[in-house]
Amino acid sequence: xxxxxxxxxxxxxxxxxxxxxxxxxxxxxxxxxxxxxxxxxxxxxxxxxxxxxxxxxxxxxxxxxxxxxxxxxxxxxxxxxxxxxxxxxxxxxxxxxxxxxxxxxxxxxxxxxxxxxxxxxxxxxxxxxxxxxxxxxxxxxxxx
Length: 144
Prior knowledge:
Elements: H1 2-17, H2 23-34, H3 36-45, H4 47-55, H5 68-85, H6 97-104, H7 113-126, H8 132-142
Helix pairs in contact: 1-2, 1-3, 3-5, 4-5, 7-8
């Protein structure tokens, strides 16, 4: 069930990117497709934590009542696994901003003023516990 949920998130993200005109956001969501293998591998490895998050109503990304203090620890090891497998994790287990821009986004967001404005706020509100998926959701909402 957890695997299906995560694949559904990726599929929805990719399909919603198809109608977007902002190259930065399109790059973000289309690159999620490249994470599919890592997501599947990491889901298997951290299945019990992910199942706990799915069963907790406070852990729905779509709701404004998402409880980061309760839910982010469920996602920490999973996100660490995904980011590490894609070279987006620094040795100190923080997001590598340079790799995110150059490798993941292929420099499509380097000159986007909305991205530049939203990124620091989104990063500080989501990445204390390495919640990469929440970072993506935050950026999607902030960058038209």
